[in-house]
Design goal:
alpha+beta, Copper Amine Oxidase, Chain A, domain 1, Immunoglobulin-like, Aminopeptidase, seven-stranded mixed sheet, six-stranded antiparallel beta barrel, 20% helix, globular
Length: 548
Amino acid sequence: MKKLAAFFCALALAAGCGLPAQAAGPAGTIEVRFHDESTKRYSDPIVSDKVNVTLDGVPMDLDVPALTRTMDGSDGRTLIPVRPIAEALGANVLWLGENRQVVISTEQDMIVLTLGSATAVVNGDRVDLPGGVPAEVAQYEGAERTLVPLRFVSEQLHATVEWDHPTFTAVVTSPTAPAEPKPILPPETTASPEPSATPAPIPNGRLVRVTADDKAETVTLYLDRAPRYRVTDLGDRVAIDLLGFAIGSGKDGSIQPENPVIDRVRYAQHTDDIDPDYPLTVRVVLDLARGCTYGKNVTVRGDPDLLAVVITVTPPESGAELPTGPAEGWDPAAYTVALDAGHGGTASGAVYEDIMEKDLTLPITLRAAELLEEKGYNVFLTRSEDVYMDLYDRCTVANNVGADIFVSIHANASSSNLAFQGTFTYSYPDSVEGERLAGCIQDAVVASVGSIDRGLLTNDYVVLRETNMPAALLETGFMSCHEELMKLIRPDYQEKLAQGIAQGVDRYLSSLPPKTAQPSPSPKASPQPTASPEAGVGGSLMVLPPEA
C-alpha cells in the first residue's frame, strides 16, 4: 500500500509537468496554509512537496518555495510566487485588490488570474487552468505570497518548462529574443488631435479597470501603461478613445458613478473602425446629465505616473439659495463647526443588505450637532434632512458662514474583503491642522465605540480640498462587513459615534487659544483664535433649507 501511495503521489506531480511519474518528492516537503477565497480564512496547515526551479540554468532564489498543489483529485501542478517568475520573464505584475486579481502583462500579452478561480483570461479569451489549480495566496513561515501555476504562466509568456524528476526541478527556459524587435512609439500623456498617417507599430495596452470615486467626484481609467487617448465632444456625451488598447477582462461594461455630471460610463472594445491606424481601440463613453457639457463640466487628463486617464467633473451651479454669512444669534466668541452628513437624496452612498449609507450618516450627524451645541459651539449642518446636496455647495456654504472646522461623516465599504472592518479618518494632503483635527476625531471615536483603529489617511476629496478651514472626513465603519453593519444601525452605537465625534472636535478646538474677531481663515489654515468656548454657553445651530 505504501508503494502504491507513493506511485500515485509521483504520478500527480509528474502529470503537472507533463512527464512520466517516478519516485515522490526528493526536494522535501513544506508546510503551508492556503487562503480560501470563499470563506476569507486560511486553511489548516497542509504538507506539500517542495519543487526546485531553475531559470536559464540558474536556481531561482524564492523566499516562499515553489510547491505542488492538487485540486479535487486532479493531476498535481506546481505553484510559484508570481512576482519572481513573471518579472524574470520580462512581465509586469499588477495587483487588483478590489477584484482579487493579479494581472501579468508584457508588450504583447496579458494574463488575468483571479484568486480561487479555475479559469484565467489570456489576451481577452477565457482559458481553463490545467488541473483546475488556481492562483492562490499561501502563508509560509509568516510570509504571505500570491502563488500562480508555474507552467501555465511561463508558457503564456513564451518560455518553455521541462521537468527533471531525480531532483524535483522545474527547468524554465526564457523565450529567444526576436531578431528584429518591433519599434515602440513613445507614449503620449495628452490627447493627440490627429495621429500620424503612418504611425510606427505600437504594442496593445490594456484597460485594467474603471472606477468611480464619489467623494472626489472622479472617474479613473486604470491602464497597464502610459495613456494614449483622444477626446471627442458629442454634446450630451463625451467619447474617450484609448488608442491601441484592449479591455483586460475581454468584456464590454459600464458603471454608474454617483455624481451630478456623469449618469453612466460605458466602455466597449473596437478594432480599426474607430481609427484605421490602430488595430484595437477601447471607446469609453460618458453619458452626461441634462444640462451638462464637456466644455463646462468635464476635465480629462492623462496621468503617466498613475498609468491612468483621470476624469474630473465640475458640477453646474445648483441654483439653491445658500447662506452668505453667519447665522443670526451665533455667539461671535464661540468656534463654528460645520458638520456634513455624507450623501443624501438621490445620492445613497454605499448600499448593503438594503441599508443605505445616507440613512446612517444623518442621525449620527444630527446627534453630534446637538452634543456640540450643548458644549457651546455654533453648529452649521450642510443637510438636516434626506436631500441631495452637491459636494461643492457643501464647501461653499461652510466657507460662506465662516466655519472654523469642517467634519464630513461617512460609512465605508470593501467589495473585495467582506470581513474587513474598522474606522479611518481622512485629511487633505499636507494640511497640518487638518491632520491634527483628523487625529483628535479618530482617537475619540475609536475610544468611544471600541472599533478597530485603522489610522489616518489623506486624499484629494472635494470636501477636504475646497473648504477654507481644517477639514476631516470620518469613515465610521464598514457597511460591507455584516458584523459592523449590524453595529452601525443600532441607535446606541450611533450615540457612541456621535459622542466620539463631539469629543474629538472639542479636544481639537479646546487646544486653540481664545477666539477673537478675525476674518475667515485662509485655505487649510488653523482657525483664528477668539474666545474659549464654555459648555452650554452661546451655542447655536444652523441648517440649510430642504430645497438646498
